[in-house]
Amino acid sequence: MAQNWAFWAFLSACFAALTAIFGKIGVAGVNSDLATLIRTVVILAVIAAIVFALGQWQPLSSIGAKTWLFLVLSGLATGASWLAYYRALKLGEASQVAPVDKLSVVMVAIFGVVFLGETLSAIHWLAIGMIAAGAVMLAVF
Description:
Layout: H1 5-26, H2 32-53, H3 65-91, H4 94-101, H5 104-116, H6 122-140
Helix pairs in contact: 2-3, 4-6
């Protein structure tokens, strides 16, 4: 099961759900940007401990320029996403914010086709449309 992408994706979804609930409670008593900073420090400490404990560290000089570029861009996008997410949680209901945030699923499908050359069947596009419609319905109604 540890080598199964679906297992890890489902686990990610479970933790993302907990992120919304814990974040909504945690952001109530603090500025949303400070909440994001605290969350980020915790993540940094935990991931660093995991990398060192499992012996996964490698010399930074062994990482190629393209990898650095896209990891830095990914980090910037993650930071921007987290700042926006916590601001949204501060201002709105978790049950509304999370579905709109999950429109990222729709965007990943579109970006995957446009930028990565991935292909989706008609049934996949239908499912993407249903995800989009569901997210909008949860947020608006």
